[in-house]
Design a protein that fits this description.
13 helices, about 300 residues, mainly alpha, MetI-like fold, about 70% helix, flat
């Protein structure tokens, strides 16, 4: 005879239930060859280029058939013709080089100043207080707001633009680098101290590799801010640089940069050239971002596994 406990347990046993309407599971293709369209659509450059083609076609159709004044908004074909003519006949590449060379000078000086501030901030408490105070005070200040003061101090010349660029570069680079140093784990810091690293050796062998994603972000932000500040400064007096005789260059010469080309075309109501200048600014930004910073990122932080693709 089963006991009462056995009967109680039997009451809670759920009977088996089988659904006769269930069909056999069908396993799909585990591996199959992608079609040509699928392989092309999975390519990142192709997808982005398709977006650009769509925007260009929409631009051309809107300006051609939308009853738009060409003086206000030129067609894409007119803008492309103006860009090609500026490159071939008007020396636009020289203007691009003038802007890039000026930016490179200011960028190198700005990185050097930021490195000194960050090293002092890591080394001493006074340096840390100095860096955080200056960053809180000056980082919110627009760099272009210093241009009138730079013109008073340095006159109409490249020195005034470089001084303005420094403000755009120093604080983003210093702030991101210092924040990256502060985010380094205590374990890595103890490893460096156990190996006897001190001073600059400790900074460049432990802190810099561990915080390189933040440093690279600061370099990118500093470059972007400086590029925008440079174009804005050149819109004011970028073509008025002094030659060797001390006289101001002519407005129609190739002494100025991209900003001056845009401003001069606007004064002459040549809207297509204005758009061509803006395209040049965009193209230079894309080339530097993908040709320099993206390669640095791929060869460092992504290869090290510190950042996902």
């Amino acid at each position: 005879m089963p006991s009462d406990d056995a009967k109680a347990v039997a009451l809670y046993v759920r009977p088996e239930f089988e659904n006769p309407d269930m069909k056999d599971a069908v396993v799909g293709d585990i591996e199959r060859r992608l079609t040509v369209w699928e392989r092309i659509s999975n390519m990142d450059p192709v997808r982005k280029f398709s977006v650009l083609i769509f925007l260009v076609v929409a631009w051309e159709l809107y300006t051609q058939y939308g009853n738009v004044n060409s003086l206000m908004f030129p067609t894409f074909s007119a803008t492309a013709d103006a860009l090609i003519n500026a490159v071939v006949n008007e020396g636009l590449l020289q203007n691009v080089w003038n802007s890039i060379s000026l930016l490179f000078t200011g960028y190198c000086i700005g990185i050097g100043i930021a490195a000194v501030l960050v090293v002092l901030g890591v080394w001493t408490r006074f340096g840390s207080d100095l860096l955080t105070t200056l960053t809180a005070m000056l980082n919110p200040l627009p760099a272009i707001a210093l241009l009138p003061l730079a013109m008073i101090w340095f006159g109409l010349g490249p020195q005034a633009i470089i001084f303005t660029l420094l403000h755009s570069i120093v604080w983003p680079v210093a702030l991101n680098t210092h924040a990256g140093f502060q985010g380094v784990s205590e374990t890595l810091r103890m490893v460096g101290r156990n190996y006897g690293l001190r001073g600059l050796g400790y900074i460049f062998r432990i802190l810099v590799p561990a915080s390189f994603p933040s440093i690279l972000t600061g370099l990118r932000i500093g470059w972007a801010y400086a590029w925008r500040t440079l174009i804005a400064a050149e819109l004011v007096f970028g073509g008025q640089v002094q030659d060797t005789s001390g006289q101001l260059g002519a407005e129609g010469s190739n002494a100025g940069g991209l900003g001056w080309i845009i401003f001069a075309a606007q004064m002459e109501n040549q809207t297509a050239i204005v758009f061509a200048g803006l395209f040049s600014v965009i193209i230079v930004g894309i080339l530097i971002e993908n040709g320099i910073f993206r390669n640095i990122e791929d060869r460092t932080v992504r290869r090290w596994g510190m950042q996902q693709s």
